[in-house]
Amino acid sequence: MFSGLVIRMNCLRYVKLIGTMHVSPRSRDEVREKILKERPSAIAIELDRNRFYAMQNPQRVNLGDALRSGRRGLLQYVLFKVEERLGEEFGMVPGGEMREAITLAQIFNIPLALIDEDINLITMKLLKAPFREKLFLLLESLAVFLSFAPSKESSDIMEDYKPMMVAFKRRYPYLFHVLVEERNEIMARNLRGIVMDLKARGIKKPKVVAVVGLGHKKGIERILNSCEC
Hints:
This protein is α/β, with parallel strands linked by helices. 60% of the residues lie in helices and 8% in strands.
C-alpha cells in the first residue's frame, strides 16, 4: 500500500556547502580536502557561464577597453581590480578555489554545475544602485588601489567576515540585496534543481559539494533547509 509513497527530505541534507574567501589560499586547500573526502555526485560553483569562460580563457583587463564599454565595463573593471589587489596580498589569484573545484571535477569525471546569476544581469542591477552607495563604493575602491590591503599578520579574516558582512549590509542595503540576498535565492534554487535531477536519474542519496563565497553560505543553507527535495 506504500508503493507509491515518495519521502522527501530537506534539500540541505544532500548539499555540502564550502564557504570560501575568493582570495584566500586556505579556501583552496579546504575545497580540495572536502571534494577528495566526499567524492560527490556533482560539484557546484559560484560562477555563471561568462565568468567560467573568462576563467578558462584569461585576458588582461585594461582601463581603455573598460572605458570604451561604458559604465558597465568601468564598473566591472573596478570590481576586478579590487579583487586582483586583494589576491596579490593573500598570495593567491582570485578564484583559485573555483579553479581547484573545476580541476578536481575534470580529474574524477564529476559533473560540474554553474549556479550563479549571469554577471551581465548583476552588473545592470548594480548600475541602478542609489548614487550614495555607488559613490561610497568608488571611494572604498580607490582606497584599495592606493593604500588599503589586509595585513597578513592581522587577525584571521575568515573569523572577521561576519562583522564585515553586517557592516556592508548597513552601508550598502541595495547592493547587499543584489549581491547577496538575490543571489542566495538563485543559487539555492539551482542547487535544489541539481539534487532533484540526480534523484530523477536514480541516485537515491545524491551528494553535492557547492563552492560559494563565505557571505553566501549561511543564507543558502537557510533556504535549502526550508525546502524539500
